[in-house]
Amino acid sequence: MNKLRSVWDPEQKYSLYSFERQPQTFPDVVLRASAPDVEPQVLMGIELKGWYALAKEGEPSFRYNVTPAVCAPADLLVVVPWALSRVISGSPQVFTPYVINARQAAEYRNWYWEHARGGKGTDRGVILSSVTTHYPNKADPISDQAVKDGGKNFGRFAGSKAMDSYIAELFDDKLAGIPLWAWQKFLLLFTEGQTTETVQAGLDALAARAGTVPEAERTDLADKFREIGDMIAGD
Prior knowledge:
Helix content is about 30%, strand content about 20%. By secondary structure, it is an alpha+beta fold.
């Protein structure tokens, strides 16, 4: 990110600061002062999550357990979706990231778990971490925990539905000229256990959903599906 300074700091207001990677602690990246006598030492942090957009789950599976109190006001949670430029080969292609204030994300996660998620039972409490220091050490226990979480789902931020509208918009983006939603459903047809009949039925369903797409684009879609399908079959 420091190589992109002309983008995020065009007027050189933060010339005494540079982005620094932090392994195994929160947040992943901080905008830190280059000298010990500069105050504040850290201006902001970014917690980065990668997401392979064509994964079968159809949503990010990362967990975000950090307690709200350790998130500084300017900290961000950033989810970066990516896929290979030729779907199953090529170079990584990045799409528009999802960006949310880190503390807001943590507070919403806890609120959703306690008040808005479905299912039965009343034991929906969240045990907050006792750590309240911004930019904690890696040994600090900064994760919140659910009182009861048999399915190990606490912290799955996408499960809180906060990203639903973003995900829906993202899947309309195109990869190799074809919408991501179509690629994702197409690749699901080739998961283990599928038969020739189920693959064909899935292709028919995709063709039906593509009925609102202009004919020229439908032809391109069919050609691309056939090309990738032949590559998968060859494997």
